[in-house]
Predict the 3D structure of the following.
Amino acid sequence: MVEIRAARAEEMPEVAQQASRQLGLPLSMFQGMHPDWTLCAFEDGRVATTYAAWPLQIRFNGPPAPISGVTWVSTHPAYRRRGFLRAITTRHFETLHEQRQVAMAGLHPAWMAIYQRYGYGTINIRHSYRIDPRQLIFVHPSEVRGTIREVDLETEFGLLVDVYRRFREDRTALVHRGRAMWDAGPLSDPPPGHRRTILAYEEAGDPMGYVVYHAGPGGFTGPGPGHYVAIMDYFALTPAAHRALWSVLATYDNAREIRWDNAPVDDPLPNMIAEPRMLDIRARDGIMARLVTLEDALTQRPYPERASLRFELRDDLCPWNAGRWELETDPEASRVTRVDGGDVDFTLTPDTLASMVWGRLSASDADRAGLLDVADDRALARWDAALRTKHRPYEAEHTW
């Protein structure tokens, strides 16, 4: 007999063990989940598929929006290709839609193709850097006005929280961090032999940025420095803060490279240094989001201008979303209504719409990629302008 239900408290150790083993991650990462936040498949009492969702808040072009942070997704090899994940995902989306409290789901995908089948679209791209600190030469050198100092994490954790909150204020895709997310992510223990350092940049005592990093041996061979610096968290509120923090990192003469695996797409550093190619920039996908209840989700973000956007959505997994809609955008309050007849600008699927609404893809980008069935080419510019976000979407989480 197959049951799809929340795990019971006494079953949580087995659920965590299965998720840890199938995902190849330490068991220590699978702690703190409330049983009511799980939705698993059990066959004859054995854990077949694990699934859970954190209740999170995420910035949606400025304002916070609730999102169901899907995690712990795995299936035991003996139960794969049986449709358990699809059944669980369908149940999860149906429950969210019935409750009408959370209109979106999000996740870090192990493999994007898995979740595109369920209507998830990628909403941000991460950049990674690998640079020799000696190559951090600024095009326009200038004097640092403020001061750099080390942060005492035991007494000044609030400084990090304050800068992070100020940075995320008008952003898209940054989540609200609880202390557990800080400790499991940027403040997690460094590798053996490495030491963590936290530096803040201040002007007249006001923190304007910080960087969390660890440094230590890198296993390099051949002549030259043998250490590397790994940036775990970095936020700067002003150009001066950016310059000051990177200027300090450039002084690591015993490091062969500085690594940052989570730089935003619109990070200013490539425009600040003389040889941006030396950053060895590489791109990879970030998080994916699903619009579970369309009319609730689309009205949770502000739009830069007024427009009428008409579209048809094809959505087999969430049939309540399928059909023709009109989104009337406004900087203050927007409206979504179902339309029975009339023309639409184009037809699309929920994964494409999610990427567009979150600001990763413009309508023109989606059209060039063949992701839209366009009825009126003149509508593309209108959609591009109406869905524009203040900043490119960026998420900085290591785990959730």
Observations:
- The CA atoms of residues 357 and 387 lie 6 Å apart.
- The first strand starts at residue 2 and ends at 5.
